[in-house]
Design a protein that fits this description.
- The protein is of the alpha+beta class and about 350 residues long.
- The protein contains seven helices and 21 strands.
- The protein has helices spanning about 5-15, 20-25, 60-70, 105-115, 135-140, 315-320, 350-359, and strands at about 50, 55, 80, 90, 95, 120-125, 140, 150-155, 160-165, 175-180, 195-200, 205-210, 220-225, 230-240, 245, 250, 265-270, 285-300, 305, 325-330, 335.
- Strands 1, 4, 6, 8, 9, 11, 14 and 18 form an eight-stranded mixed β-sheet that branches. A seven-stranded antiparallel β-sheet has the order 7-10-17-12-13-15-16. Strands 3-2-5-19-20-21 form a six-stranded mixed β-sheet.
- Strand 20 and strand 21 (about 335) form a beta hairpin.
- The radius of gyration is 24 Å and the shape is elongated.
Length: about 350
Protein backbone atom coordinates (compact mmCIF):
# COMPACT_ATOMS: atom_id res chain seq x y z
CA UNK A 1 0.00 0.00 0.00
CA UNK A 2 1.16 3.54 -0.77
CA UNK A 3 0.30 6.89 0.74
CA UNK A 4 -2.84 8.40 -0.79
CA UNK A 5 -2.76 12.21 -1.12
CA UNK A 6 -6.49 12.28 -1.99
CA UNK A 7 -7.35 10.93 1.46
CA UNK A 8 -5.30 13.71 3.03
CA UNK A 9 -7.18 16.31 0.98
CA UNK A 10 -10.48 14.68 1.91
CA UNK A 11 -9.56 14.89 5.60
CA UNK A 12 -8.54 18.54 5.39
CA UNK A 13 -11.73 19.45 3.53
CA UNK A 14 -14.10 17.61 5.86
CA UNK A 15 -12.63 19.20 8.97
CA UNK A 16 -12.43 22.61 7.29
CA UNK A 17 -8.69 23.00 7.78
CA UNK A 18 -7.86 23.41 4.08
CA UNK A 19 -8.40 27.15 4.11
CA UNK A 20 -10.74 28.69 1.51
CA UNK A 21 -10.77 25.42 -0.48
CA UNK A 22 -12.70 23.55 2.23
CA UNK A 23 -16.07 25.17 1.62
CA UNK A 24 -16.02 24.69 -2.12
CA UNK A 25 -14.56 21.19 -2.28
CA UNK A 26 -16.63 19.55 0.47
CA UNK A 27 -19.68 19.24 -1.83
CA UNK A 28 -17.75 17.20 -4.39
CA UNK A 29 -18.58 13.46 -4.59
CA UNK A 30 -16.42 11.29 -2.34
CA UNK A 31 -15.42 14.10 -0.02
CA UNK A 32 -17.55 12.89 2.91
CA UNK A 33 -17.64 9.38 4.41
CA UNK A 34 -21.18 9.85 5.65
CA UNK A 35 -22.56 10.43 2.16
CA UNK A 36 -24.52 13.36 3.54
CA UNK A 37 -23.85 16.98 2.68
CA UNK A 38 -22.86 18.81 5.88
CA UNK A 39 -25.74 20.72 7.42
CA UNK A 40 -25.95 23.08 10.33
CA UNK A 41 -25.73 21.42 13.73
CA UNK A 42 -24.60 23.15 16.86
CA UNK A 43 -24.05 21.97 20.42
CA UNK A 44 -27.31 23.58 21.53
CA UNK A 45 -29.23 21.19 19.22
CA UNK A 46 -28.05 18.14 21.18
CA UNK A 47 -30.17 17.89 24.29
CA UNK A 48 -29.94 14.88 26.64
CA UNK A 49 -33.25 12.99 26.64
CA UNK A 50 -34.14 11.60 30.10
CA UNK A 51 -34.37 7.83 30.32
CA UNK A 52 -37.49 5.89 31.24
CA UNK A 53 -37.75 5.53 35.04
CA UNK A 54 -37.57 1.88 36.04
CA UNK A 55 -39.03 -0.18 38.87
CA UNK A 56 -36.75 -3.03 39.94
CA UNK A 57 -38.50 -6.21 41.07
CA UNK A 58 -35.67 -8.78 41.43
CA UNK A 59 -36.46 -12.26 40.15
CA UNK A 60 -40.17 -11.65 39.68
CA UNK A 61 -42.53 -14.42 38.62
CA UNK A 62 -44.31 -14.11 35.27
CA UNK A 63 -47.69 -13.32 36.86
CA UNK A 64 -46.22 -10.46 38.90
CA UNK A 65 -44.40 -9.08 35.86
CA UNK A 66 -47.59 -9.02 33.81
CA UNK A 67 -49.71 -7.32 36.44
CA UNK A 68 -47.02 -4.78 37.34
CA UNK A 69 -46.28 -3.94 33.72
CA UNK A 70 -49.96 -3.26 33.07
CA UNK A 71 -50.14 -1.05 36.16
CA UNK A 72 -46.92 0.91 35.54
CA UNK A 73 -46.95 1.56 31.80
CA UNK A 74 -49.74 4.19 31.93
CA UNK A 75 -47.70 6.04 34.58
CA UNK A 76 -44.58 6.18 32.39
CA UNK A 77 -42.54 3.54 34.27
CA UNK A 78 -40.70 0.49 32.99
CA UNK A 79 -40.00 -2.76 34.86
CA UNK A 80 -36.81 -4.77 35.27
CA UNK A 81 -36.53 -8.17 36.93
CA UNK A 82 -32.73 -8.57 37.00
CA UNK A 83 -31.53 -10.87 39.81
CA UNK A 84 -30.65 -9.21 43.09
CA UNK A 85 -27.02 -10.33 42.97
CA UNK A 86 -26.58 -9.60 39.28
CA UNK A 87 -27.09 -5.83 39.16
CA UNK A 88 -23.84 -3.99 39.89
CA UNK A 89 -25.43 -0.57 39.39
CA UNK A 90 -28.91 0.90 39.23
CA UNK A 91 -29.71 3.20 36.32
CA UNK A 92 -32.81 5.44 36.31
CA UNK A 93 -34.34 3.27 39.05
CA UNK A 94 -36.23 5.36 41.61
CA UNK A 95 -38.16 2.37 43.04
CA UNK A 96 -37.01 -1.06 44.23
CA UNK A 97 -39.46 -3.74 45.36
CA UNK A 98 -38.10 -6.09 48.03
CA UNK A 99 -39.85 -9.36 48.68
CA UNK A 100 -37.21 -11.71 50.08
CA UNK A 101 -35.33 -12.42 46.80
CA UNK A 102 -33.40 -15.24 48.50
CA UNK A 103 -34.17 -17.48 51.45
CA UNK A 104 -30.81 -16.69 53.04
CA UNK A 105 -30.98 -12.94 52.45
CA UNK A 106 -32.47 -11.00 55.33
CA UNK A 107 -33.92 -7.53 54.87
CA UNK A 108 -31.06 -5.94 56.81
CA UNK A 109 -28.46 -7.51 54.49
CA UNK A 110 -30.46 -6.64 51.38
CA UNK A 111 -30.69 -2.97 52.38
CA UNK A 112 -26.99 -2.78 53.15
CA UNK A 113 -26.21 -4.22 49.70
CA UNK A 114 -28.57 -1.74 48.10
CA UNK A 115 -26.88 1.15 49.88
CA UNK A 116 -23.51 0.10 48.43
CA UNK A 117 -24.66 -0.05 44.80
CA UNK A 118 -23.77 2.68 42.35
CA UNK A 119 -26.84 4.76 41.49
CA UNK A 120 -26.94 6.67 38.20
CA UNK A 121 -29.25 8.94 36.30
CA UNK A 122 -28.75 8.59 32.55
CA UNK A 123 -30.04 10.48 29.54
CA UNK A 124 -29.63 9.64 25.86
CA UNK A 125 -27.66 12.18 23.85
CA UNK A 126 -27.47 10.41 20.46
CA UNK A 127 -29.18 7.25 19.24
CA UNK A 128 -26.78 6.11 16.52
CA UNK A 129 -29.19 3.40 15.41
CA UNK A 130 -31.48 6.19 14.15
CA UNK A 131 -28.99 8.84 13.00
CA UNK A 132 -30.08 12.36 12.26
CA UNK A 133 -28.61 13.45 8.88
CA UNK A 134 -26.93 16.40 10.58
CA UNK A 135 -25.32 14.09 13.14
CA UNK A 136 -24.20 11.70 10.41
CA UNK A 137 -22.59 14.55 8.47
CA UNK A 138 -20.47 15.54 11.46
CA UNK A 139 -18.30 12.44 11.33
CA UNK A 140 -15.31 11.92 9.08
CA UNK A 141 -12.14 9.81 8.94
CA UNK A 142 -8.90 11.09 10.42
CA UNK A 143 -6.18 8.48 9.86
CA UNK A 144 -2.39 8.31 9.89
CA UNK A 145 -2.40 9.46 6.26
CA UNK A 146 -2.04 12.98 7.68
CA UNK A 147 1.53 11.97 8.60
CA UNK A 148 2.33 9.68 5.67
CA UNK A 149 0.76 6.43 6.90
CA UNK A 150 -1.51 4.12 4.90
CA UNK A 151 -4.22 3.16 7.42
CA UNK A 152 -7.78 3.74 6.22
CA UNK A 153 -11.13 4.00 7.96
CA UNK A 154 -14.71 4.76 6.99
CA UNK A 155 -17.93 5.82 8.66
CA UNK A 156 -20.87 3.51 7.98
CA UNK A 157 -24.40 3.52 9.39
CA UNK A 158 -25.02 -0.16 9.96
CA UNK A 159 -26.76 -1.00 13.22
CA UNK A 160 -25.27 2.19 14.60
CA UNK A 161 -22.20 4.33 14.00
CA UNK A 162 -19.81 1.86 12.35
CA UNK A 163 -16.10 2.76 12.55
CA UNK A 164 -14.29 0.23 10.38
CA UNK A 165 -11.30 -0.11 8.10
CA UNK A 166 -7.73 -1.36 7.95
CA UNK A 167 -4.94 -0.18 10.25
CA UNK A 168 -1.30 -0.57 9.24
CA UNK A 169 2.02 0.23 10.87
CA UNK A 170 3.69 0.83 7.48
CA UNK A 171 5.37 4.20 6.86
CA UNK A 172 5.68 4.73 10.64
CA UNK A 173 1.90 4.85 10.93
CA UNK A 174 -0.43 2.86 13.14
CA UNK A 175 -3.69 4.65 13.86
CA UNK A 176 -7.12 5.16 12.37
CA UNK A 177 -9.91 7.30 13.75
CA UNK A 178 -13.15 9.09 13.09
CA UNK A 179 -13.82 12.56 14.48
CA UNK A 180 -16.57 15.13 14.38
CA UNK A 181 -16.28 18.57 12.94
CA UNK A 182 -16.41 21.26 15.62
CA UNK A 183 -19.75 22.10 17.17
CA UNK A 184 -20.46 25.84 17.24
CA UNK A 185 -21.54 26.74 19.85
CA UNK A 186 -20.03 23.85 21.80
CA UNK A 187 -22.02 21.14 23.54
CA UNK A 188 -22.79 21.97 27.17
CA UNK A 189 -22.77 18.88 29.42
CA UNK A 190 -21.79 20.78 32.55
CA UNK A 191 -24.68 19.28 34.54
CA UNK A 192 -23.44 15.73 33.88
CA UNK A 193 -20.52 13.70 35.21
CA UNK A 194 -19.59 11.64 32.18
CA UNK A 195 -20.55 9.69 29.08
CA UNK A 196 -21.80 6.15 28.45
CA UNK A 197 -21.09 4.43 25.14
CA UNK A 198 -22.94 1.27 24.13
CA UNK A 199 -20.57 -0.49 21.72
CA UNK A 200 -20.08 -3.74 19.85
CA UNK A 201 -16.39 -4.28 19.19
CA UNK A 202 -13.86 -6.81 17.97
CA UNK A 203 -11.75 -7.45 21.06
CA UNK A 204 -9.39 -4.52 20.45
CA UNK A 205 -8.68 -1.53 22.70
CA UNK A 206 -9.96 1.80 21.40
CA UNK A 207 -9.84 5.41 22.60
CA UNK A 208 -12.75 7.77 23.28
CA UNK A 209 -11.61 11.37 22.89
CA UNK A 210 -13.24 14.72 23.72
CA UNK A 211 -11.98 18.27 23.20
CA UNK A 212 -13.01 21.45 25.00
CA UNK A 213 -11.14 23.75 22.62
CA UNK A 214 -11.93 24.38 18.93
CA UNK A 215 -8.26 24.30 17.89
CA UNK A 216 -7.40 21.53 15.43
CA UNK A 217 -4.42 20.35 17.49
CA UNK A 218 -5.83 21.29 20.90
CA UNK A 219 -5.58 19.02 23.94
CA UNK A 220 -7.31 15.67 23.47
CA UNK A 221 -8.89 14.22 26.62
CA UNK A 222 -8.77 10.44 26.28
CA UNK A 223 -10.08 7.26 27.82
CA UNK A 224 -8.93 3.86 26.52
CA UNK A 225 -11.48 1.03 26.60
CA UNK A 226 -11.46 -2.65 25.77
CA UNK A 227 -14.18 -4.29 23.71
CA UNK A 228 -15.80 -7.71 23.69
CA UNK A 229 -15.54 -9.56 20.41
CA UNK A 230 -18.70 -11.52 21.17
CA UNK A 231 -21.17 -8.97 22.50
CA UNK A 232 -22.10 -5.48 23.66
CA UNK A 233 -20.00 -3.47 26.08
CA UNK A 234 -21.00 -0.49 28.21
CA UNK A 235 -18.23 2.10 28.44
CA UNK A 236 -18.82 4.54 31.31
CA UNK A 237 -16.33 7.41 31.36
CA UNK A 238 -16.16 10.14 33.99
CA UNK A 239 -15.13 13.51 32.58
CA UNK A 240 -12.72 14.06 35.47
CA UNK A 241 -10.92 10.78 34.73
CA UNK A 242 -10.15 11.57 31.07
CA UNK A 243 -6.43 12.01 30.44
CA UNK A 244 -5.19 15.20 28.78
CA UNK A 245 -2.89 14.35 25.86
CA UNK A 246 -1.32 15.86 22.80
CA UNK A 247 -0.33 13.37 20.10
CA UNK A 248 -0.49 10.50 22.61
CA UNK A 249 1.75 12.29 25.12
CA UNK A 250 0.11 12.99 28.47
CA UNK A 251 0.09 16.56 29.80
CA UNK A 252 0.04 16.20 33.61
CA UNK A 253 -0.16 19.96 34.22
CA UNK A 254 -3.28 20.40 32.05
CA UNK A 255 -6.56 21.47 33.60
CA UNK A 256 -9.36 18.85 33.66
CA UNK A 257 -11.75 18.57 30.73
CA UNK A 258 -14.47 21.23 30.80
CA UNK A 259 -17.72 19.38 29.93
CA UNK A 260 -19.61 22.68 29.64
CA UNK A 261 -17.86 23.39 26.31
CA UNK A 262 -17.28 20.27 24.24
CA UNK A 263 -16.31 21.00 20.65
CA UNK A 264 -15.58 17.58 19.19
CA UNK A 265 -15.72 13.82 19.72
CA UNK A 266 -13.41 11.14 18.35
CA UNK A 267 -12.97 7.35 18.28
CA UNK A 268 -9.50 5.93 17.62
CA UNK A 269 -7.67 2.64 17.19
CA UNK A 270 -3.93 3.11 17.74
CA UNK A 271 -0.91 0.92 18.27
CA UNK A 272 0.12 3.33 21.03
CA UNK A 273 -1.39 3.96 24.43
CA UNK A 274 0.31 6.99 26.02
CA UNK A 275 3.87 8.26 26.41
CA UNK A 276 5.31 5.66 24.05
CA UNK A 277 3.66 2.61 25.65
CA UNK A 278 2.12 0.12 23.23
CA UNK A 279 -1.55 -0.80 23.10
CA UNK A 280 -1.53 -4.37 24.51
CA UNK A 281 -4.64 -5.36 22.55
CA UNK A 282 -3.60 -3.84 19.21
CA UNK A 283 -3.83 -6.07 16.15
CA UNK A 284 -2.95 -4.59 12.76
CA UNK A 285 -5.31 -5.37 9.91
CA UNK A 286 -9.08 -5.17 9.55
CA UNK A 287 -11.05 -3.76 12.48
CA UNK A 288 -14.58 -2.70 13.29
CA UNK A 289 -16.38 -0.93 16.14
CA UNK A 290 -20.10 -0.14 16.20
CA UNK A 291 -21.46 2.48 18.59
CA UNK A 292 -25.18 2.08 19.19
CA UNK A 293 -25.76 5.00 21.54
CA UNK A 294 -24.12 7.84 23.40
CA UNK A 295 -25.61 8.69 26.79
CA UNK A 296 -24.62 10.98 29.64
CA UNK A 297 -24.80 10.20 33.34
CA UNK A 298 -24.60 11.66 36.82
CA UNK A 299 -24.96 10.40 40.37
CA UNK A 300 -28.60 9.61 41.10
CA UNK A 301 -30.59 9.69 44.33
CA UNK A 302 -31.05 6.57 46.43
CA UNK A 303 -34.12 4.55 45.40
CA UNK A 304 -37.20 4.17 47.54
CA UNK A 305 -37.78 0.60 48.74
CA UNK A 306 -41.31 -0.75 48.40
CA UNK A 307 -42.24 -3.54 50.81
CA UNK A 308 -45.56 -5.14 49.78
CA UNK A 309 -45.89 -6.81 53.21
CA UNK A 310 -45.20 -5.66 56.74
CA UNK A 311 -41.76 -6.69 58.01
CA UNK A 312 -40.46 -6.57 61.57
CA UNK A 313 -38.28 -3.53 62.38
CA UNK A 314 -38.49 -2.32 58.79
CA UNK A 315 -38.25 1.36 59.72
CA UNK A 316 -35.17 0.73 61.87
CA UNK A 317 -33.42 -1.28 59.14
CA UNK A 318 -34.18 1.35 56.50
CA UNK A 319 -32.92 4.18 58.69
CA UNK A 320 -29.72 2.27 59.49
CA UNK A 321 -29.06 1.91 55.77
CA UNK A 322 -29.96 5.59 55.18
CA UNK A 323 -32.78 4.53 52.88
CA UNK A 324 -36.44 5.45 52.63
CA UNK A 325 -39.17 2.89 52.12
CA UNK A 326 -42.92 2.45 51.97
CA UNK A 327 -45.17 -0.13 53.59
CA UNK A 328 -48.86 -0.74 52.90
CA UNK A 329 -51.55 0.52 55.24
CA UNK A 330 -55.27 -0.15 55.36
CA UNK A 331 -55.67 2.91 53.16
CA UNK A 332 -52.66 3.92 51.09
CA UNK A 333 -49.12 3.54 52.43
CA UNK A 334 -46.71 4.86 55.03
CA UNK A 335 -43.26 6.30 54.32
CA UNK A 336 -40.67 5.07 56.82
CA UNK A 337 -36.90 4.97 57.33
CA UNK A 338 -34.52 7.83 56.57
CA UNK A 339 -37.43 10.13 55.67
CA UNK A 340 -41.17 10.26 56.25
CA UNK A 341 -41.81 11.77 52.80
CA UNK A 342 -41.37 10.51 49.26
CA UNK A 343 -38.63 12.28 47.30
CA UNK A 344 -39.77 14.43 44.36
CA UNK A 345 -38.61 11.91 41.73
CA UNK A 346 -41.09 9.27 42.96
CA UNK A 347 -44.70 9.40 41.81
CA UNK A 348 -47.05 8.35 44.66
CA UNK A 349 -49.38 6.82 42.07
CA UNK A 350 -46.60 4.44 41.03
CA UNK A 351 -46.21 3.31 44.66
CA UNK A 352 -49.96 2.70 44.94
CA UNK A 353 -49.96 0.78 41.66
CA UNK A 354 -47.14 -1.50 42.86
CA UNK A 355 -48.79 -2.23 46.20
CA UNK A 356 -52.14 -2.88 44.55
CA UNK A 357 -50.67 -5.21 41.90
CA UNK A 358 -48.73 -7.25 44.47
CA UNK A 359 -51.38 -7.35 47.20
Amino acid sequence: MVWNPFRLLKTLVHFEVAGPLSRGLRHMPGMTDSGVTPTALDGASLEPEPGLPMVWLPGAAAAAVKSLTQALEPLGYGLTTAPWEGAAALVNTPLVVWGRPGADLALESALEQLKQRAIYQEARLIDFCRPDPAVAALWGSLDDGVMGGVSTSQVHWQGGLRFAGHVSTANSGGFASIRTRNLEPPLNLGRWQGTVLQVRGDGQRYKWILRDNPGWDSLAYCRSFDTDADGLSTVRTAFLEMVATRRARTIPAATPLNPARLYSMQLMLSKFEYDGALNPAFDAGAFGLTVQSLRVYRQGPQPVVVLPRETANVGHHLAAAELTGVIPQAEGFEVVGASDRLPPQVNPEAVRAILSALA
